[in-house]
């Protein structure tokens, strides 16, 4: 009878194993559903950027080449993101009489632009031109935003 005892124990464990397996499966399904209904994913892009009032967050060192910037506006007001290649530091860009960056200045080369302002909570993706090694500035050029410090030095290397 000792030889049958291990088989008997396994038979006794079957209901417990079925219950544990069911709980593990239910947990995996619940996790999958939680991920499916969570807040929207980041916008498409190999470079992720976020704006809030008077701050841009994105990588400050990029690799050369073409990129797609996924922009998220986590602020309470509209923002945009413009990327210029320039030898000037972010706080030294040429401005017009209103204090906005003179985007037509020969000292700036526009290499990426989100276009129209992005509403609070909005996301979008936009391409860059081919980035070559050097200095760049990312900024929001909506009225008063550049002056309030919404600018960032970026290096491509």
How is this structure best summarized?
The chain is an alpha+beta fold. It is built from one helix and nine strands; from the N terminus they run H-E-E-E-E-E-E-E-E-E.
Q: Could you characterize the architecture of this molecule?
A:
- By secondary structure, the chain is α+β, with helices and mostly antiparallel strands.
- It folds into 2 domains: 1-38; 47-156, Sandwich (Immunoglobulin-like), CATH 2.60.40.
- 21% of the residues lie in helices and 27% in strands.
- It is elongated.
Beta strand %:
25-35%
Return the average pLDDT rounded to an integer: 89
Structural class: alpha+beta
Q: Over all CA atoms, what is the radius of gyration?
A: 26 Å
What count of domains describes the coordinates?
2
